[in-house]
Specification:
With about 210 residues, the chain is an alpha+beta fold. It has two domains: about 45 residues; about 150 residues, no CATH class. Strands 1, 2, 3, 4, 5, 6, 7, 8 and 9 form a nine-stranded antiparallel beta sheet that branches.
Length: about 210
């Protein structure tokens, strides 16, 4: 009888100890709660931190392409010196390249010119032609994630050139337009879209291709 009573008491004590252990494990104490709040606050502060990394680059060249229905257009940006900046803000990264005295050649359109002067879409017939915009800027920024190029104090020219390939340098051809703009933007996420602010331009007679 005594042995049976002792066994019952032992079982009850063990059961109570298990309950206490579960309570301590599952339900945190005030101290553990405080530690959890501190860790949570530290994590939030780390996410809110702003960190910046910079890198100087020389002889920068960027080749940009956009696709049309049956062909693609090209733009080439060149810059002797730039500063690449990687910024982390609230856990998100943004890459921006600060440009100084850069040039951008951009194909606005490529097409075929028939002998009678009719302009048709890009194809095998006719003479290959292209309209190219050339703009030089004192400064600007290239936003990688936004597919955006901004420019300040811009000198803009527009050319009518033979061929479908974008030349590295335009020479021996007269522009069909020349102008100056306070600022400009080029987006290339969905086609090339060039927009100039306060543009003062002079237009010339087209068709002066040599």
């Amino acid at each position: 009888m005594f042995t049976r009573s002792s066994l019952i008491v032992t079982v009850v004590v063990l059961f109570c100890l298990v309950i206490v252990w579960i309570g301590v494990s599952i339900f945190p104490t005030n101290k553990s709660k405080q530690r959890f709040l501190i860790l949570s606050q530290e994590t939030k502060e780390q996410k809110d931190l702003v960190s910046t990394h910079k890198q100087l680059r020389e002889r920068v060249r960027k080749d940009l392409y956009v696709t049309r229905i049956n062909h693609r257009l090209q733009a080439v940006l060149t810059c002797p010196l730039s500063e690449l900046t990687l910024t982390h803000v609230k856990g998100e990264a943004e890459v921006v390249e600060n440009l100084k005295k850069f040039q951008c050649l951009m194909q606005e359109e490529i097409y075929s010119l028939l002998p009678d002067g009719t302009k048709i879409l890009f194809g095998e017939e006719g003479k290959p032609m292209q309209i190219v915009r050339d703009f030089n800027a004192v400064s600007g920024k290239f936003y990688y994630q936004r597919h955006l190029l901004t420019a300040n104090r811009v000198f803009v020219s527009r050319f009518l050139l033979p061929g479908w390939e974008l030349p590295d340098v335009i020479k021996d051809y007269e522009p069909t337009m020349k102008g100056v703009a306070r600022s400009a933007e080029l987006t290339f996420g969905n086609g090339f879209k060039f927009k100039a602010q306060n543009l003062k331009a002079t237009f010339f007679v087209p068709g002066l291709v040599k």
